[in-house]
Amino acid sequence: MSIELEPVAVVRSSRHELIDDRWDGETSFIELLPHINQIALTGLDSFSHCLVVGYFDRATDGQLVRHPRGNHSWPLVGIFAQRAKDRPNRLAISVCAIDRIDDNRLHVRGIDFIDGTPILDIKPWMAEFGPRGDILQPTWSHELMATYWDDSSTD
Is residue 154 situated within a structural domain? Predict the structure, then answer.
């Protein structure tokens, strides 16, 4: 089976490098491509957040099993048990806050895609689609995420 997709937009971001942490320090917007009319964004600004599906075009084919971020103090887990960018289909998903819409630009906060990332879809975030019941995740994942969003610490 083959699936063919065409990007609808592209990310414009202050981050140009493939680095993992401190995403809250970035400014970003999603710019619709010319074949998608800006009318497609109508009403999206009545939501606080959106779900963005992108394509990690600069990622590499990754290992199917690995220690997250190469950290051997964390367990060996499959690619589907982590959110690494080097995935079989290089699909990316990010939930981000909507700041505003200017013509064909959707200004967002908290998107963890670098400049130039192709966008395949944008959907409003609705609370009813969030997880139901308790959330369970292993300790190593909390450790990995400790500085993912935080931009207050420096190296």
Answer: no
